Amino acid sequence: MSTDTPHDAREQLIELAAEFYDQFADGDVPEMSIPTRTKSNIEYDEDSQVWVYGDRTSTRSANSVRGARKLLKAIYTIDFLADQLGEDRSSTLRELYYLSESWDNEEAQFNDQDESNQLVEDLEIVSSVTREDFHMRPEESGATLMGPLELREQTRRGERVIHCQEDVGEGGYQIPNNPDTIEFLDNDADFVLAVETGGMRDRLVENGFDEEYNVIIVHLKGQPARATRRITKRLHDELDLPVTVFTDGDPWSYRIYGSVAYGSIKSAHLSEYLATPEAQFIGIQPTDIVEYDLPTDPLSDSDVNALENELEDPRFQTDYWTEQIELQLEIGKKAEQQALASRGLDFVTDTYLPERLAAMDVL
């Protein structure tokens, strides 16, 4: 899925609406087909190493009251988005939900934000245009990066050239909603380190890890937003930088790594646009829990179920992951990144990360 200019994105939306009109004109019942967005219709593409939708589709047809309502809402949303692009404005997903309450047809109004979010995703799929190119923004994710990277970004006040160490504070450079508006100008980076938690990100910056090892530190802020995954992929693809993902040692954090590396089920239509299959896991391993005798919490029932599911997950079908997950189930423990502080505040930057990165041939 490629990015488009506002004009191109608007044209794609208008063409989609025109298809409904042509169906009316031909005496056909209007309908819209999209991939079935369920776990059973997600396939792991071995060639691209990302999640993609399978061949099963669902049809939104006006031959039922429910289907007609969905198409009506789609038409109103297309009209709103086309006007927004024509005026070169933007809005948030939350605003779209509330804006629908002002639409003149009550049947076109959304029942909740989940419904409006899903419709925007449907329009992405059928138009092959990303929501960023619709000028639709999520609520601010606050994700940032810090490191030896100079870039140019487009703003409403014109272009800005920013060095992501010299021109930013301790908080770093905030990743914009659409990272494709950024132009990479220069860098002295050797690799990218994507970090799950804010506390660990702050520890690395305070200890000068980005400067000492010429690393771009990307704060994932938990489950990473699309913009965060997109800029990480661009750093890898365009600057040829290895990507490593540093997370807690629990099944939910392994899935954070999986979403960066292989994509997520929710955004499978964008996997090739967002995912970085070459990304390597450098998070807390069950073997680390044992080797360093880290402070831990016991696995909950949901943790155990998640780990057992990951043993069957194609993203984790390697000898490494099988060994680590089975060990974690055996010891019944999980640990956070900050547990490394039990060895001292500098342990993570002086010992743990350098040793892991060297073993992975990143350093």
From TrEMBL:
Residues 139-188 form the Type II DNA topoisomerase VI subunit A all-beta domain. The keyword Transmembrane does not apply. Belongs to the TOP6A family. GO terms for cellular component: chromosome. Residues 191-357 form the Topoisomerase 6 subunit A/Spo11 TOPRIM domain. The keyword Nucleotide-binding applies. Homodimer. Heterotetramer of two Top6A and two Top6B chains. Mg(2+) binds at residues 196, 248. Gene3D superfamilies: 3.40.1360.10, Winged helix-like DNA-binding domain superfamily/Winged helix DNA-binding domain. Its cofactor is Mg(2+). This is Type 2 DNA topoisomerase 6 subunit A. Residues 69-135 form the Spo11/DNA topoisomerase VI subunit A N-terminal domain. Its EC number is 5.6.2.2. Keywords: ATP-binding, DNA-binding, Isomerase, Magnesium, Metal-binding, Nucleotide-binding, Topoisomerase. The gene is top6A. Relaxes both positive and negative superturns and exhibits a strong decatenase activity. One of its GO terms (biological process) is DNA replication. One of its GO terms (molecular function) is DNA binding. InterPro entries: Spo11/TopoVI_A (IPR002815), Spo11/TopoVI_A_N (IPR013049), Spo11/TopoVI_A_sf (IPR036078), Topo_VI_alpha (IPR049333), TopoVI_A (IPR004085), TOPRIM_Topo6A/Spo11 (IPR034136), WH-like_DNA-bd_sf (IPR036388). It catalyses: ATP-dependent breakage, passage and rejoining of double-stranded DNA. The active site is at residue 98. It comes from Halalkalicoccus jeotgali (strain DSM 18796 / CECT 7217 / JCM 14584 / KCTC 4019 / B3).
